[in-house]
């Protein structure tokens, strides 16, 4: 299945970050052009680590991306406040 390319953000806006462990996490729009019904997703690409181990990627619906963002923000708040939520990573 061919893609029509990633949706690009305006110049100057970052669409990726490099974590403290050296992995680049990129986020961009993805459009798949099947006839009659284009598919749009948000692509999350976690790149190779510093040792060269392969990364992973996921194509999320808009709702899945919002849910993931909510979960990440909730964990960031817990981490910054020093509160334990009982879950393990």
Automatic annotation (TrEMBL):
Superkingdom per UniProt: Bacteria
Name this polypeptide is given: Uncharacterized protein
């Amino acid at each position: 299945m061919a893609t029509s390319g990633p949706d690009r953000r305006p110049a100057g806006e970052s669409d990726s970050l490099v974590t403290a462990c050296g992995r680049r996490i990129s986020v961009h729009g993805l459009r798949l052009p099947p006839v009659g019904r284009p598919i749009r997703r948000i692509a999350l690409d976690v790149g190779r680590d510093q040792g060269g181990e392969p990364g992973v990627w996921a194509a999320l619906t808009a709702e899945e991306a919002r849910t993931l963002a909510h979960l990440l923000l909730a964990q960031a708040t817990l981490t910054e406040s020093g509160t334990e939520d009982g879950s393990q990573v």
